[in-house]
Amino acid sequence: MKPISSRHVLRFKRKERRKKTQMKKISFLGDMLPIEVVEGIDYLVARSRRKPLPRQLFLLICLNLVIIPAVQAATGGEISRGQAFWLTALGLVTLTLSVYLFVVIFQPERF
After folding, report:
1. Is 57 helix (H, G, I), strand (E, B) or coil?
2. What DSSP character marks residue 3?
3. Helix H segments across 1-111?
4. What is the CA angle 19-23-26, rounded to 5?
5. Per-residue model confidence as pLDDT tens digits over 37-64
6. How far is CA 22 from the centre of its chain?
7. Which of 30, 87, 88, 97 shows the greatest Cβ crowding within 10 Å of its Cβ?
8. Cβ atoms within 10 A of the Cβ of 72, count?
9. Within 13 Å and on the Cβ side, how many CA atoms surround 36?
10. Contact call for residues 84 and 71 (beta carbons, < 8 A)
């Protein structure tokens, strides 16, 4: 039989702590919402942890919708809403790539 290392004990304690906090959240939501809604929320949270890209894209589009009026105001209404959307999207993609490249250059050990 293998001896239990302290790393395994810490991992087990973290899992137990997570279970307790999740149970508290479920019981808190369960008091106010129907069980189907609580199960749906749990499913969405679990899925978003495994696949964060859809959530990130959704937040990027929401940010884009917030910035569009400022772009239209800065151009004096000369461009259409669709052009303002894509111009803002291009700016956000450029900003995202520059941040990513900055991190890759200064922290290469993470990649």
Report:
1. helix
2. P
3. 6-32, 35-50, 53-75, 81-106
4. 140
5. 778 878 877 877 777 777 778 888 888 8
6. 19
7. 88
8. 19
9. 0
10. yes
Q: Which two tokens stand for residue 82?
A: 């669709």
Query: 9-26, pLDDT tens digit by residue?
Result: 666 666 666 665 555 555
Which residue type occupies 59? L
Q: Report the C-alpha gap between 99 and 52 in whole angstroms.
A: 18
Cα–Cα nearest to 87, from 102, 62, 70: 70
- Encoding tokens for residue 92? 């956000």
CA Rg value for the chain: 22
Average pLDDT for 80-107: 90
Chain Cα centroid distance, residue 7: 28
Distance in angstroms (rounded) separating the CA atoms of residues 72 and 81: 7
**From CA 47, how far away is CA 55, in angstroms rounded?**
10
